[in-house]
Design goal:
With 239 residues, the chain is α/β, with parallel strands linked by helices. The protein has helices at 15-26, 39-47, 49-56, 66-74, 85-94, 108-121, 140-150, 163-171, 186-190, 199-203, 207-214, 219-222, 224-238, and strands at 2-5, 8-11, 32-35, 60-61, 99-105, 125-131, 154-158, 179-182. The protein has one domain. A six-stranded parallel beta sheet has the order 4-3-8-7-5-6, sandwiched between helices. Strands 1-2 form a two-stranded antiparallel sheet. Helix 2 crosses helix 3 (49-56), helix 3 (49-56) packs across helix 8 (163-171) and helix 4 (66-74) packs parallel to helix 13. It is globular.
Length: 239
């Protein structure tokens, strides 16, 4: 079942169901796409209809942020719970299901560190290829060829939103992976280049505050969150 958040259609699912769906996708015969919009991304999609179209054509679109859950409650179409994209990836890694993956994104030294950590920590995960996120348009055919040659089941694209979603949407028919997922900064977190939000902040729904403390330059981007919620309130009152 989908929930409409200012035109972006979010799957109303639990964490457990998201993992089961991901595993089903990995073992299927076709290509599936997974997107993880938070409040900032939903706000950007509200302004950018090309981006919103890409999100809405995803096979699974999960509510990656408490702001999205709060917006759903404001709009009287409540989502069951937040389903964090990073935790979904970790749940897969920890499930001990054999999966071959290709990592695409981040800085060269960061992605190499992430690859090393995954290899040492998760024995059931086979990394069949990786590439940093710095490229020109002319490099894309070679990147796609390398991904396809790897025969990866699961492609993690960490180029940041909306670049990663638009890339996936444009090239998904050229890629032979079973699952392609936009993972934002997850590669940096795996590599321990960016600290995970402490559980106390998550419990109090203050992830945004922790990220602001750690990265003050995010302030301008985070101003989109209250604007996003105000638009939801307006839509609820005057629909």
């Amino acid at each position: 079942m989908k929930t409409n958040i200012l035109g972006t259609m979010i799957d109303n699912i639990t964490k457990d169901y998201a993992l089961k769906t991901l595993l089903t996708f990995i073992n299927s015969e076709k290509t599936h796409t997974i997107y993880t919009p938070n409040a900032e991304i939903c706000m950007e999609a509200y302004k950018n209809k090309e981006f919103q179209k890409a999100l809405n054509e995803g096979s699974l679109v999960i509510p990656d942020g408490q702001g999205v859950v709060l917006a759903s409650k404001i709009l009287k179409t409540p989502l069951t719970e937040k389903v964090a994209g990073f935790k979904l990836i970790l749940s897969l890694f920890e499930s001990k299901n054999p999966v071959s993956i290709y990592l695409f994104g981040s800085k060269p030294e960061v992605i190499e560190k992430a690859v090393s950590i995954i290899k040492n920590k998760y024995s059931e995960i086979t990394i069949v290829g990786y590439r940093n996120g710095y490229f020109e348009e002319s490099d894309i055919p070679l990147i796609i060829s390398d991904i396809n040659k790897s025969k990866a089941q699961f492609l993690l694209v960490g180029l940041g939103a909306p670049k990663q979603e638009l890339f996936i949407h444009k090239y998904k028919t050229s890629l032979f992976c079973n699952v392609i997922m936009g993972v934002g900064g997850s590669i940096d977190v795996i590599a321990n280049e960016v600290k995970r939000v402490p559980e106390v902040f998550i419990t109090l729904s203050l992830e945004w505050f922790y990220r602001l403390i750690m990265q003050p330059k995010r302030l301008k981007r985070m101003l989109n969150i209250p604007i996003f919620l105000l638009i939801c309130i307006k839509k609820r009152l005057f629909k």
